[in-house]
């Protein structure tokens, strides 16, 4: 039982401080380096942790955590509050609707989806992850964070996925200001080519972003002239989810 408790504590510490080294965890817990290393390897073999892609001496949360979190959220009050408004939004616009939450990897995780009836439509499986800096749901979340948190996130340059991806931190800050002013975020081929989205944040009682709801559609059906309409609809849906969640 003691080893299980230790493993959970180390898992939580990695989530909080990632990417983190064995040495940093050793100092944090006051444990022998061999014990920490052995625990990390065991959690890695089980899929709960993984080595950082850029620096393999550092550890971060693995894919299994990302798979479990959406499943747990499906029984939560947030999931229950969002389901009906998402269905109504889908029926109004006949496009796929996603609910995504931020995770500890500076990514968004899809936790629910309502499909449209178009033959050609977007598809993101439950548990799918995407980068905050290159998605409408990510921008919707970032725009609601205090400036110090945005500054902490916007360091260095971001990975580019295409010509439309924002990779410059200052350009991202400018875009987040636009998101705040209009109330919704737009992704036009910034992450996956040929896929667009319009998203708005779901907040808690203190105005902290919990999730983002998005209208997702192929670029072939993206009409700039409809942005105001779609932005209003997704913002109204996010506001309704927020209100239902706070009841």
Shape: globular
User: Which stretches of 5+ consecutive residues score pLDDT under 50?
Assistant: none
Major sheet attributes: 6 strands, antiparallel
Averaged pLDDT: 89
In total, the number of strands is 9
What gyration radius follows from the Cα positions, in whole Å?
A: 19 Å
The multimeric state of the shown protein is single chain
Question: Helix/strand/pairing class, anyone?
Answer: alpha+beta
Relative strand content: 15-25%
Number of helices: 9
Helices and strands, in order, run as HEHHEEHHEEEHHHEEEH
Strand order of the largest sheet: 6-5-4-9-8-7
Distance between the first and last residues' Cα: 39 Å
Fraction of helical residues:
40-55%
Describe what this molecule looks like in 3D.
The protein has 247 residues and is of the alpha+beta class. 46% of the residues lie in helices and 20% in strands. It is built from nine helices and nine strands. Helix 1 (2-17) crosses helix 3 (33-45) and helix 5 (77-93) packs antiparallel against helix 9 (227-246). The protein is globular and about 60 Å long. The protein starts with a helix and ends with a helix.
